[in-house]
Amino acid sequence: MGLRKLFGGGDGDDRGPRIDTVIATVLPRPGQRIDGEVLFRAGWRKLPIHDLNLDVVSKAREWDGSTIDCHEVALRPELVWFDVERHTDRQVGFHGRLPWHCPVTELTGRSTGVDLALVTTLGYDSDDVRDLDFLHVAALPLHEAVMDALLAEGYHFTGSELLRAVVPGIEHRNPQTQLFYLEDPTGDPAGFPALEVAFVTNPVGATVFVRRAARHLFWWEDRPPAVSFPVAHHEAVADGGRVVGSGTGGSGTGGDGTGVDGAGVDGADGSGAVDLGPRVRDALASLAVLDRSPR
């Protein structure tokens, strides 16, 4: 982005100040450190910066259908008050750590449809100048492992959205919930042709909620009943960093629940990954009973 435009200079004025925010960490994941730098170039006069803030901001849907900006985390610049002398450049580094609850924008190489940005706010003279850079955050291994297990049951991922609402009865670090939608086009219409999945994540792992999809409803309590099961981070990553999901052979495990090299994958000591297929199938069976129970 060009400061000459943000600060009111014409596009043909090469004497105006410029800025560029560079995110050095490629496809960070929730819980991961993120680094970068803000590059300043002063023009024909000194560039005084009296404040510098870098905030990760998401866009969530409200109950009335409107969209709201939600603050996820503030990153820390090395300097917040400084001058850039005329006709000189200056680099100011920044760093921080994405929270575990940070929404993800990419899942197995596909966009989730959730908007996430790094918003740079500058104090310049008497004005605050804001600009944004899109921030791409990859899914955690446990996200991918659960989705792989559901894929083995015939479901495929169709999209995601971020709601300004929480899952009641469980601790939240922020008031947003990301919902992942899946469909089974060949499934029994009397069963669950469409599902929604939510992850409430912390440093240990996540509580995974699964329910029949109901996109037209907003509040968690108004939606169909959900079942839940836990997944630890170490349960989703085998030795060597392979993601393991269903144990069907397509996600790094053999069909008999062993690793590709024939070794067991119990994950109990953090040295391997578990087969999430049985856990997901049990959840779907429990959901079939719960969904048909009187409420």
Descriptive account of the structure:
- This protein is mostly beta strands.
- It is built from three helices and 15 strands.
- The strands form three sheets. Strands 1, 2, 3, 4, 5, 6, 9 and 10 form an eight-stranded antiparallel sheet that branches.
- Strand 13 and strand 14 (205-212) form a beta hairpin.
List the helices and strands and how they pair.
Blueprint: H1 3-6, E1 18-23, E2 33-41, E3 47-61, E4 67-77, E5 82-84, E6 89-97, E7 106-107, E8 110-111, E9 116-124, E10 127-134, H2 141-152, E11 156-163, E12 177-183, E13 194-201, E14 205-212, E15 226-232, H3 277-292
Brief overview:
The protein is mostly beta strands.
- Tell me the number of strands: 15
Helix content percent band: 10-25%
- Briefly note the structural class of the backbone: mainly beta
DSSP helical segment count: 3
Mean pLDDT: 82
Characterize the biggest β-sheet. 8 strands, antiparallel
Q: Any idea what the radius of gyration is?
A: 23 Å
- Low-pLDDT runs of 5+ residues are 2-6, 8-12, 246-271
Q: What is the overall silhouette?
A: elongated
What amount of the residues lies in strands?
35-45%
Helix/strand order, N-terminal first: HEEEEEEEEEEHEEEEEH
First and last CA, distance: 54 Å
